[in-house]
TrEMBL record:
A Pfam family matched in the record: DUF218
Protein name stated in the entry: DUF218 domain-containing protein
Domain DUF218 residue range list: 6-154
The organism of origin for this protein: Allobranchiibius huperziae
């Protein structure tokens, strides 16, 4: 099916006691359900995420992949399973977008990409997406209001991911293929408390 639009939904580390996502993930899921319901031509919806780097580092046995839990929420709220693609290899925003790009290519390169995100995530995700996707897709960011993390955490993630991606030519994501989870960026996160 030739699709004009794809909605990308990024996961986030759930609470290891309740296994609930942070509020902003549910806000983006609910936004996607409303967009899907209102669309005459149903968009492709991509849920992205395996589990967080922190859970991998600490050997936390998460009982689900983030992409599956998000897809379940969408299906429970009326999104057709056939319109959902689950990307379940990624563990951070850089790998989210790398693997999502592959899914978009497999899906026939929808022309318009929509990313609903917590307002505070948009600058970092936009910076990473620009590097990974290059100019291949038209992207619209939709801000959902949600609780904010400590400003220093988001700034540090932005800065470290910017430095990591700096040598990569824009849109040349094959540069990333051998760098996931064993490069200096991932060692930095693994050694952080």
């Amino acid at each position: 099916m030739d699709r004009r639009e794809a909605i990308i939904l990024l996961g986030s580390q759930p609470d290891p006691i309740t296994w609930h996502f942070p509020r902003h993930v549910y806000d983006t899921l609910n936004w996607a359900v409303a967009r899907y319901d209102a669309a005459a031509s149903k968009p492709l919806v991509i849920t992205s995420g395996d589990r967080s780097l922190e859970f991998c580092r600490d050997d936390v046995a998460q009982p689900f992949r983030e992409c599956d839990r998000m897809a379940d929420h969408l299906i429970e709220h009326g999104v057709c399973q056939a319109d959902i693609v689950r990307e379940g290899e990624s563990r951070d925003v850089v790998s989210n977008l790398y693997y999502v790009k592959r899914e978009l290519i497999r899906a026939g390169r929808p022309r318009e990409i929509v990313l609903p995100l917590a307002h505070w995530r948009i600058p970092r995700v936009a910076m990473v997406l620009d590097k990974v996707f290059g100019s291949e897709f038209t992207t619209t960011y939709v801000a959902v209001n949600s609780e904010s993390p400590p400003a220093s955490d988001e700034h540090l993630k932005w800065e470290m991911q910017r430095r990591f991606l700096e040598p990569m030519p824009r849109g040349q994501d094959t540069w990333l293929a051998e760098r996931f989870y064993d490069s200096w960026l991932y060692h930095f996160w693994a050694e952080r408390d």
